[in-house]
Amino acid sequence: MNRQVAIELKNISKSFGSVYANKDISMCVYQGEILSILGENGSGKTTLMNMISGIYYPDSGHIIIDGEEAVISSPKDAFKYNIGMIHQHFKLVDVFSAVENIILGLSGSSILNMAAATKKVKEICDKYGFVVDLNKKIYEMSVSEKQTVEIIKVIYRGANILILDEPTAVLTPQETQKLFSILRKMRDDGKSIVIITHKLHEVLSLSDRVAVLRKGEYIGDVETKQTNEAQLTEMMVGKKVELNIERSEPVNTVERLEVKGISCINRDGIKILDNISFVANSGEILGIAGIAGSGQRELLESIAGLQKLNGGEILYHDPKTGFTENLRDKSPVRIKELGVRLSFVPEDRLGMGLVGNMDIVDNMMLRSYKKGKSFFLERKQPKNLALKIINDLEVVTPNENTPVRRLSGGNVQKVLVGREIASNPTVLMAAYPVRGLDINSSHLIYNLLNKQKENGVAVIFVGEDLDVLIDLCDRILVICAGGISGIVDARSTTKEEIGLLMTKTNRGDANES
Amino acid sequence: MIVAFIQRAIVQSIPLLFGSTGEIITEKSGNLNLGTAGVMYVGGICGVMGAFFYEQSVETVNPILAVIIPMLTCILGSALMGVIYSVLTVTLRANQNVTGLALTTFGVGFGNFFGGSLIKLTNADVPSIALSATSKCFKTTLPFADKLGIIGDLFFSYSFLAYVAVIIALITSFYFNRTRSGLHLRAVGENPATADAAGINVTVYKHTSIIIGSIIAGFGGLYYVMDYANGVWSNDGFGDRGWLAIALVIFAIWRPNVSILGSILFGGLFIVYNYIPDLSLSSQELFKMTPYVVTILVLIITSMRQKKESQPPASLGLPYFREER
């Protein structure tokens, strides 16, 4: 082939403590191609890319750019070689404007000339079709706008090799399409684009070539045209994985949770929840789809008793006593006693569910510390539970006494979801339980949710991957700007239908008129 | 009397202004130096030591040298304090609060030890050292100030270090907002990981700003001894000024230009009890508290308004280590 090599890696290794993150990796990136790096959690994708962008330094091996060995020991060096990385967690300064962030770190006149900088940024925006208000402060921006700023920042520095770490994780399907078209435009401009992801359908639709990593080792690369989902999955996990989610028909459904017209206004006086009504049945998985920040979090928190409501009621039909109770006036403790469990996995994983500095056993006890009559804590049961979760969910940890903070993101999530499910709830609410998890662990979680459903639990599942929502849930509730824009049957709906409902604006217009 | 009050308030404000400008520079890099009180104290005693040995070694003092030598020793002392703090917190990533508090204890102890030693050398009857010759050089005012009446009294009657303080504060403001390097420094304090990824050398910025901040704060101590106290050093005479400087940083919402007016307000509040007749000793102490009360009010107001720009630098107090996740 006569393609020009943009960057070549030779026998790169990197370890953290005694664990190999990358082992003897050799690969190439060509000019004018979109290369996907595919791999499970902890397979070393991000570590590898961090070494190219100067965040980490390889323990051994060589990076060759333009036929010469390159030493990239800092991000500054990476820019020198025209390499730019867009990290999963945006590297932007909140209180700075877009332009300030874009010119950050560059050399030039010591007195700033913002007008000239703004003009230059504007030219880039026009060239590739970015739409963003350049004087807006980052903290006022949406996730997609922040990502745009990140990409402009990298191009402003003249990057020819762009590395994107899971860029679509936080975008809606529409925003993803927009991003992809910009990336294609850049490729046609001769730039090399490396995209780290574990969403197979994106790999297949966007990239020219796929390179697969598994457990820190380089498995191989394939032309996207000549491969398919099954082959890629097999390369990724090393064994054939059943990708279909086994969805059973709901049996013996009874109304478990009835939400009637709840509304909620936040501190700024903005309506986050607007007259929401739905019913969650036992033995059924109710999916909630919507653009991030449309009110999903507030909805679940209202049910768990963490959110103050301005109207409406939440009725809980207790399966043991047969009574109906209004959860709206109940404290979170009382609600938990009734068996309503909230497993919340927000972006900041250690924010609400677990305490980072405590070990796995102690985190188990956060749910059970009220049990027992003795003055002293019972540590044996939580320990057994911790061991069981580590074993069942294949949590990678030195032992059960490791602080949760030291585990990788995916493993933290397994601990949290495992604990919530272990407490035998009657209503299980899971928000983004698979965010950041690889295919294998995601399916573990899906199976767990399905098992809960078969046991007669009313499961509410907030998800972002529409394919999964359609495959896993029985009914899908679509939420848009705090209101329900539709409830669809998951067995007969399509991604397009849900996508449209997610961005449906006519509801809002109707309210204003 | 009002003119005299404002004059005294301004004289009182200069050490606070030096301290808070130094602390703002330090905090903008993401390091909370609670050792500022100690740094200022060390700056003061080092200036005293320089002046003392210079005065002892010559018959008549040369006014230029009498100013330069104490300034150099003051810079040396406070810079060393800055180095101790920056090596501990930046290089070794020690807890910033503990390091800062330890530095205050150390600085005050250091000052009192050498202050006491010098007092012993002079064989004086009073527990203080008087460096009137040096102080006179420091207090030289502009020659035309006397002839301008009230305007002269209000604006031109101060010694050169006072103007230096204001100029440093203004330059610092300009530096933060209008220069490239200032933008980088603010980025380091807000989000070091981002700054690092953008190719800014976080460690260099942190070390530099801590040491320069300490030197500026040290001048506050020097001004206090040479000007405010007329060259008389007595142990523990510096009082709470270091803590007031830190409170002033919050009051000025991390803006050195606001700090200029804030320091005068603090200076005024600090001495206002002298101008209210018939105060008992206990109510005097109550009046001395007012700067802190004002600071708490500012804290309440800024946190209620929730304006991102008036919040402390986002990574203030946190150590930065690139490969930690």
Instruction: Return the string of H and E elements of chain B.
Output: HHHHEHHHHHHEHHHH
Greatest contact between two chains? A-B, 29 and 25 residues
Q: What count of helical segments of chain B does DSSP give?
A: 14
The neighbouring-strand order within the major sheet of chain A is: 6-7-8-3-9-10
**Share of helical residues of chain B:** over 70%
What oligomeric state do these chains adopt? heterodimer
- DSSP E strands of chain B, number: 2
Low confidence ranges of chain B: none
Globally, the shape of chain A reads: globular
**In the residues of chain A, how many domains can be counted?**
2
Structural class of chain B: mainly alpha
- Measured on Cα atoms, how large is the radius of gyration of chain B? 20 Å
Q: Give the class-level CATH name of the largest domain in chain A.
A: Alpha Beta
What does the largest sheet of chain B look like?
A: 2 strands, antiparallel
Number of helices of chain A: 18
Strand content range of chain A: 25-35%
Just name the CATH architecture of the largest domain in chain A. 3-Layer(aba) Sandwich
Approximate helicity band of chain A: 25-40%
What would you note in describing this structure?
- The complex is a heterodimer of chains A (513) and B (325).
- Chain A is built from 18 helices and 20 strands.
- Chain A has helices spanning 45-52, 75-80, 98-103, 114-128, 143-156, 173-188, 200-206, 229-237, 296-303, 332-337, 349-352, 360-368, 380-392, 409-422, 439-454, 466-472, 495-502, 506-512; strands at residues 5-16, 19-30, 34-38, 60-65, 68-70, 83-86, 161-165, 192-197, 209-214, 217-223, 255-265, 271-281, 284-289, 311-317, 324-326, 340-344, 427-431, 458-462, 475-480, 483-489.
- In chain A, helix 12 crosses helix 13 (380-392) and helix 13 crosses helix 14 (409-422).
- Chain A is globular.
- Mean pLDDT of chain A is 83; it is low at 506-513.
- With 325 residues, chain B is mostly helical.
- Chain B has a domain at 13-239.
- Chain B has helices at residues 2-28, 36-57, 63-91, 96-122, 132-138, 149-155, 160-178, 180-190, 192-197, 202-228, 241-251, 256-271, 281-288, 290-305, and strands spanning 129-130, 232-233.
- Chain B has a two-stranded antiparallel ribbon.
- In chain B, helix 2 (36-57) crosses helix 10 (202-228).
- The longest helix of chain B has 29 residues, at 63-91.
- At the A-B interface, helix 2 of A face helix 8 and helix 9 of B.
